[in-house]
Amino acid sequence: MIFTTAYIVLGTLLRAQALLNSNLNYQSSSRRQEYAILGIDIPLVERRAWRRNSEENAPDELNFTHSIASGDPWPESIILCTRIAPTGESDKSNVTVEGDVPLYNHVTKPYIDVDPHPICLEWSVFKTNNGTVATKSLEPFTECFDQFVVCNSENMSRLGKTETASREDDHLDKISLAVFPCSNYPKGYFNAYGNAVRRHNRDYVVHLGDYIYENADPTGERADKPPHAPFSLHDYRTRHNQYKTDPDLQLLSKD
Ligand SMILES: *[C@@H]1O[C@H](CO)[C@@H](O)[C@H](O)[C@H]1NC(C)=O
Ligand SMILES: *[C@@H]1O[C@H](CO)[C@@H](O)[C@H](O)[C@H]1NC(C)=O
Ligand SMILES: *[C@@H]1O[C@H](CO)[C@@H](O)[C@H](O)[C@H]1NC(C)=O
Ligand SMILES: *[C@@H]1O[C@H](CO)[C@@H](O)[C@H](O)[C@H]1NC(C)=O
């Protein structure tokens, strides 16, 4: 099935240009040394896409199924995330997810089939909440706004809000956190997520887990998907997708 998750690291911000450089799956977090292992070889990915004679999806068939999110703030960088795909469905991999497994590998694809349809996304970061003044670099402890757009199209994500971290030695009078634990989708609505946006100003959100539950509650309008305890990679992705479509969770993630 067709999907691309874009984890994009913004160091010095420039409008994304190259096709695959704007789709850095599992790019190392904030380019920090300790996560270098999560980085991928972009030239290799480009060569592979070229070999497959890939065909792009039409922009109007693509949907930001999980809206957008941002996190892992550092003084001059932040990670922006989105999922862009025709549907919320993922690869039907039945690989079991249990015990220690090697990291997801783009070359040997032990867990999922690599999709032959590359998706080109651009992103921008703005100083204003109407998306008019683009910024090229980030300042510490500063709010900014972000948006993804499917290349060469009008199909764009919602405008997100994000905030860089302070420098280690900065003096701050006040920092506000919204803290959440234990979010169980079938047990009720996620209005607490939405209320953190609608009613309060906060700098950051901290989720202590559980972010999803592995139980199976197959009844009611928020019945768990799949309707059994997740077991395979596809099961987990289906469950994760279900949570991620919640409007209040999407509101909190983008804000
Ligand atoms: C963006 O994609 C969605 C989902 O496929 C579609 O409904 C919408 O019309 C598209 N918007 C534009 C401006 O192409
Ligand atoms: C896009 O995804 C959202 C889930 O976030 C869904 O509610 C909506 O119906 C989808 N739109 C299209 C056109 O597929
Ligand atoms: C996954 O699918 C393959 C091929 O259909 C099958 O051989 C294998 O037993 C399945 N594994 C699991 C864990 O269901
Ligand atoms: C966008 O916001 C800025 C700053 O708040 C304001 O000066 C500008 O007029 C706004 N532009 C539009 C098109 O609304």
What is the structure about, briefly put?
With 255 residues, the chain is of the alpha+beta class. It contains 4 helices and 8 strands; from the N terminus they run βαββββββαβαα. The strands form 3 sheets. The protein has a 3-stranded antiparallel β-sheet with strand order 1-3-2.
Describe the fold and architecture.
The protein is α+β, with helices and mostly antiparallel strands and 255 residues long. It has 3 domains: 2-52, no CATH class; 58-169, Purple acid phosphatase-like, N-terminal (Immunoglobulin-like), CATH 2.60.40.380; 174-255, no CATH class. It is built from 4 helices and 8 strands. The chain has helices at 42-51, 191-198, 233-244, 247-254; strands spanning 4-10, 68-74, 77-84, 121-126, 143-150, 160-163, 177-181, 204-209. A 3-stranded antiparallel sheet has the order 1-3-2. A 3-stranded antiparallel sheet has the order 4-5-6, with no helix packed on it. A two-stranded parallel ribbon has the order 7-8. It is globular. The structure holds 2-acetamido-2-deoxy-beta-D-glucopyranose (4 copies). One 2-acetamido-2-deoxy-beta-D-glucopyranose (NAG) binds next to loops. Residues 1-18 form the signal peptide. Residues 177-252 form the PhoD-like phosphatase metallophosphatase domain. Residues 234-255 have a biased composition (Basic and acidic residues). It comes from Clonostachys chloroleuca.
Lateral arrangement of strands in the main beta sheet: 1-3-2
Our count of helices gives 4
**Largest sheet report:** 3 strands, antiparallel
CATH class of the largest domain: Mainly Beta
The overall pLDDT average reads 80
The ligands bound in this entry are: 2-acetamido-2-deoxy-beta-D-glucopyranose
Judged by helices, strands and strand pairing, the structural class is alpha+beta
